[in-house]
Records
---
Amino acid sequence: MFAVLKTGGKQYKVQAGDVLRVEKLAADAGEKIQFNDVLMVGGENTVVGAPFVEGAAVQADVIDQIKGEKLIKFVKRRRKHSSKRTVGHRQKLTLVRITDILASGADKSGVKAAIGSGSVSAPAAAAPAKPAKAAKKAVAPAADAAADDLTAITGVGPAAAKKLADAGITSYAQLAAVDVESFDAVKVKPEWVAQAADLAK
C-alpha cells in the first residue's frame, strides 16, 4: 500500500518504512506525527482525492531535525569597480520515518497533526479585529450625517473642505458665522461666507 502526501509545498509518494526529508516541522525527535493532506491512496483499491482523500492520513515518527546541503549563491556584476557577493544557505529539514498509512479513520487516531514550523495561528486570532474596523466605518457615516458638503461652495475644493473640517467647520451655518478678518485657522474668502449663508437658509 502507498500514499501520496503533501507537506511543505511538495508531494511525496511513500510506503511504510520509508525515510523522508521534509520541510521543517514543529515536532521533536521521537514524536509521532500524522500527515492529513493525503492526495492519493493506492493498493488494492486506488482512491484519488479531490484534492484530498477524506479520512486518510500517513503516520510517521520524527527521527531528527537536520539541515540540508549548503547552497552557495554568488552574484557578480561585470564592469570596473563592480561588486560581488557570496551567500550560503542550509535549509532546515525534518527527518521522518513512515510507520503507517491509514485509508480511513484519521480523525479518530489521536496522533498529533504535522504542522510546518512557519505556520502560525495568528491570522485566526486577528480575525475578530476586522468586525471592529467595520463597526468604526459604520459609526463614521452617522457622525458625518450632520455635516454639509462644503465643496458645493464655489472655490472650495476637497483640500479646503478638509482644512475647514480640521478647524471644526463642517456645516454651511458654521461657515456663514465665520468672521473673515479674525479667523486665522484657514484663509476664508468673503464669497464663501456669503454662499454658505445662502445655502444654510
---
Amino acid sequence: MSNLTVTTFFSRWLEVLFNYRKHTGSWAWILHRITGLGLTLYIMVHIIALTGLLKGEAAFNEEMAMFKSPVFLFGEWLLGALVMFHSLNGVRIALVDFGNGARYHKQILAFVYVLGVLMVAGMAYLIFLH
C-alpha cells in the first residue's frame, strides 16, 4: 500500500462499498459493525459520565437527574436497540459458524430481525410509557 495515499485508499474503499450489490447477509454484516462502533462510543461516554462520582454525591445526583430527560431516555432506548441487534446477530453468527447454521442463515437472520424489533418495541414501552 506504499503507492496509495490514505485518501486514495479510503475513496477506493467507499467506491467498492457503494457499488457492491448488498444482500441480507451484507446488511447484517454492515449493521453488526455499526452497532459495534456505537457500543464502543457508548463505553467511552459511560466512563466519562462516571467521573461525576469523583465530584461528590451532590454533583453525581445532579448528573443523574439530567439523565432522566427525554433526550437521554431516547439515547437509552437507542443504546438498548444497539445492544439487542448486536447480541442477537452475534448469536446468529455463532450459529452459522459452529454448526449447520449456514444452511439456514436467512431464516435465522429473519428471526433475529423479528425478535429484535419485538424486544426494542417492548423496551420503548418500558422506557417511554411506563
---
Amino acid sequence: MAKITENTREEVAAIVRDFFAEECEVDKSRIDDTTNIIKDLDGDSLMFLELIEIFKKKYNLDIELKVIGKYAVKHPVTTIGQLIDMQMLIIEHENRLLDLDNKN
C-alpha cells in the first residue's frame, strides 16, 4: 500500500492526463475530469491496463488485475475524473479494494 499524501491526487491526475494526451494524440489542455475516455478520446480498456501497470511500478502496488476487474464491473469508469478516483482507491487499498463494497 502506497502512502497517500496531499499531492498524490495531483500526481495521479497529471500522469493520467499526460498518458491519454500522448496515447490519443490530443492536446493535454483538452483533457479534464469530465472528458469521456471513449467518446472524447477514442480510448480503450487496454489503455486502462497500461495505466495500471504504470501505477503498480510507480507506487510499488500489490494488486491483482482480477480484483480491479471485479471492482470495475460494479463501478464502471467513463471519465478521466472517475479513472483518477478509481486509481486513488487502488493505490490506497490495493487487493483490499473489493472490501470497500462490503462496508456499504
